[in-house]
Amino acid sequence: MLSPYRVLDLTTERGLLCGQILGDLGADVIKIEPPGGSPARKIGPFYEDLPHPDRSIYWWAYNRNKRGITLDIAHPEGRELLLRLTRGADFLIESDDVGRLASLGLGYEDLRALNPRLIYVSISPFGQDGPKARYADADLVLMAAGGPLALTGDEDRAPVRVSVPQAYLHACADAAVAALAAHHERVASGLGQYIDVSAQQSLPLATQSGILAAPFEADQGLRIAGGVKLGPLKVQLVWPAKDGWVSLTFLFGSGLGVFTKKLMHYLWEQGWCDEATRDKDWIAYGELLMTGKEPIEEYERVKKIVSSFTAAHTKAELLDLSLDKGFLFAPVTTVEEVAQSEHLRSRDYFRPMEHPELGRSFLYPGPFAKFHESPVTYRLRPPMVGEHNRDIYAGELGLGENELAGLARKGII
Question: Which helix (H) or strand (E) holds 119?
Answer without folding.
Answer: strand 119-124
